[in-house]
């Protein structure tokens, strides 16, 4: 019988053994990618009034609805809420969310006081198109990424004071997400193409993204990888992903998150969570549903992701059964929450408040599933998160 993909990948994972996941979040290394098991928070309970299935001790609420005013403000929340991040703001915080619609996409923000009450909402970026995901910077900016062939990264001010600025030196391509590496003073970028690449932007001056070098990951698969400069990242006839021979291909790059020397990113085409150990220059697989060996794979449609100080990763699903799954540092993957009644939607923008006690995320198309995202929901879940 020919060796199919699932069997081959399982064999490769066993062969890789304990060499995988040498980064800081995976110091408790395990033999192969994450496997199903009991989650750290226990089973999901029955759905609450908002359709959220949560573990014991957690509560949820709706923070905003697309095309409706955010409660207590005069700001109308945007359609198709997508990538998001939280930022400290005095004794409160701000949640920023992209809008994945053409021409008027941009991004908006909600400000919370120390008790979690909404105090204001406002626009931070306008006049851009298909703003999908992005990432937060160490200097407190939100990088909003356009998802089209000539897409740009925009550096925005979560407080809405400074004007947003395009950063063409970071390349023109179908941007998805960004993650900052303050240790190596670089920004990692994913590309949402079936033959997309994984990029690294190194600014000339850390904290100033106006100028720098765009590199693409090169290699032959998991294990040691390298980087090579993209010759023409801004104005091109040949797309950035085709300019470097030997550039690695990733099937639909999605979320991107950096912590402790490791950049984690997802690819939807093969349902993988990757782990790039920047300290070792090594690429491994943190999760792949084809590599699940015991029980049913709980995580499908991998998309946006974020992490907690505990080392847990939280991975949102695009479709499937509308869950956010947690992947623990000891290699267990399990559902953390589920949104019922939003069957034609996707979960986007997971992000923790600065104190780690609240998780924000959206259902991009809501209960109606309308592709224009006019029925989007943005949620908050509070509870005893591991920190």
Describe the 3D structure.
- With 387 residues, this protein is mainly β.
- The protein has a single domain, classed as 6 Propeller (Neuraminidase), CATH 2.120.10.30.
- 3% of the residues lie in helices and 43% in strands.
- The protein contains 1 helix and 28 strands.
- It has one helix spanning 5-16, and strands at residues 35-36, 52-53, 59-65, 81-89, 92-99, 107-112, 118-125, 131-136, 142-146, 153-156, 165-166, 175-181, 186-191, 198-205, 208-218, 223-224, 226-229, 253-259, 262-267, 272-277, 282-288, 302-307, 313-317, 323-327, 332-339, 347-352, 358-363, 377-382.
- A hairpin with a 6-residue loop joins strand 13 (186-191) and strand 14 (198-205).
- The protein is globular.
- The N and C termini lie far apart (47 Å).
- Residues 1-31 have low confidence and may be disordered.
Overview in brief:
It comes from Actinomadura yumaensis. With 387 residues, the protein is mainly beta.
| Strands, total number | 28
Q: Kindly, what is the distance between the CA atoms of the first and last residues, rounded to a whole number of angstroms?
A: 47 Å
Specify the helix fraction band: under 10%
CATH homolog superfamily: TolB, C-terminal domain
| Unreliable runs | 1-31
**Overall pLDDT score:** 92
β-sheet strand percentage: 35-45%
Shape: globular
Major pleated sheet: 6 strands, mixed
Q: How is the quaternary structure best described?
A: single chain
- CATH C-level: Mainly Beta
The CATH topology name reads Neuraminidase
Query: How many discrete structural domains?
Result: 1
Helix and strand content put the structural class at mainly beta
Taken in chain order, the helices and strands follow as HEEEEEEEEEEEEEEEEEEEEEEEEEEEE
Helix tally equals 1
């Amino acid at each position: 019988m020919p060796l199919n993909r699932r069997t081959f990948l399982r064999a490769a994972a066993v062969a890789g053994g304990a060499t995988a996941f040498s980064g800081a979040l995976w110091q408790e290394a395990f033999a192969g990618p994450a496997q199903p098991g009991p989650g750290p928070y226990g089973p999901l309970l029955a759905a609450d009034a908002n359709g959220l299935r949560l573990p014991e001790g957690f509560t949820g609420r709706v923070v905003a609805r697309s095309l409706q005013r955010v409660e207590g403000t005069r700001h109308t929340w945007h359609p198709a809420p997508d990538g998001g991040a939280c930022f400290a703001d005095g004794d409160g915080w701000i949640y920023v969310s992209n809008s994945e619609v053409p021409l008027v996409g941009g991004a908006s923000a909600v400000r919370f006081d120390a008790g979690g009450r909404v105090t204001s909402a406002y626009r931070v970026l306008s006049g851009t198109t298909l703003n999908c995901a992005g990432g937060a910077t160490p200097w407190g900016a939100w990088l909003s990424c356009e998802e089209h062939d000539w897409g740009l990264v925009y550096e925005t001010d979560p407080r809405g004071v400074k004007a947003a600025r395009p950063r063409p030196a970071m390349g023109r391509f179908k941007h998805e997400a960004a993650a900052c590496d303050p240790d190596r003073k670089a920004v990692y970028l994913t590309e949402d193409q079936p033959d997309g690449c994984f990029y690294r932007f190194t600014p000339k001056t850390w904290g100033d993204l106006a100028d720098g070098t765009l590199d693409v990951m090169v290699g032959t698969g998991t294990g040691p990888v390298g980087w090579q400069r993209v010759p023409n990242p801004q104005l091109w006839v040949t797309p950035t992903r085709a300019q470097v021979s030997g550039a690695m291909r990733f099937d639909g790059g999605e979320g991107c998150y950096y912590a402790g020397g490791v950049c984690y990113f997802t690819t939807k085409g093969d349902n993988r969570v990757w782990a790039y150990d920047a300290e070792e220059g090594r690429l491994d697989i943190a999760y792949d549903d084809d590599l699940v060996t015991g029980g049913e794979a709980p995580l499908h449609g991998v998309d946006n992701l974020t992490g907690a100080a505990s080392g847990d990763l939280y991975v949102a699903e695009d479709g499937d059964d509308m869950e956010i799954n947690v992947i623990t540092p000891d290699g267990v993957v399990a559902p953390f929450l589920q949104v019922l009644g939003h069957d034609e939607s996707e979960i986007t923008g997971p992000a923790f408040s600065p104190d780690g006690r609240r998780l924000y995320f959206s259902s991009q198309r809501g209960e109606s599933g309308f592709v224009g995202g006019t029925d989007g929901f943005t949620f908050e879940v509070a509870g005893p998160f591991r920190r």
